[in-house]
Amino acid sequence: MCMVVFYNLITFAMQENIEQWYAIKFFVKLNKCATETFASLTEAYGGATLSRTMVFKWHKAFKVGRENVEDDPRSGRPISSTNDQNVEVVRAVMAKDRRLSVRMIAEETGLDKSAVHRILTDHLHMRKICAKLVPKYFSMEQKAN
User: Fold this and answer.
1) pTM
2) Which of 14, 15, 39, 140 has the fewest CB atoms within 10 Å, measured from its CB?
3) Cα distance between residue 39 and residue 9, in whole Å
4) 71 part of a folded domain
5) What CA–CA distance (Å, rounded) separates 40 from 137?
6) Same domain, 37 and 88
7) How many domains does the chain have?
């Protein structure tokens, strides 16, 4: 449920950014300066306006001749460690012993700790596994035990 809400929020934010990028492109075609463009966007979108830096960046890109409104693909390493095979490996390790920590599971499977944490929380829907609460002050009966 949370993932669906998160996905919808991201999709909504991206659509709003694309709308603003089209508006910036429109203002460039009207030969408006970046400051006027930012002021108009702030008036129209209020608190959801792109930052001043982003408006100026997109304004300059459209003025130079950019036609594509979509954001460029970004470099970086894709998240490939959360495939179905790795999810099943982590699930099998968890089936053997549920008291293992994220670090211990990562050592046993050979995956990165952040990947194991992502698999546990997002794919297997688990929360903190190993937690032991100890009272700060012991009663006389607890001290005797």
Assistant:
1) 0.46
2) 140
3) 25
4) no
5) 61
6) no
7) 2
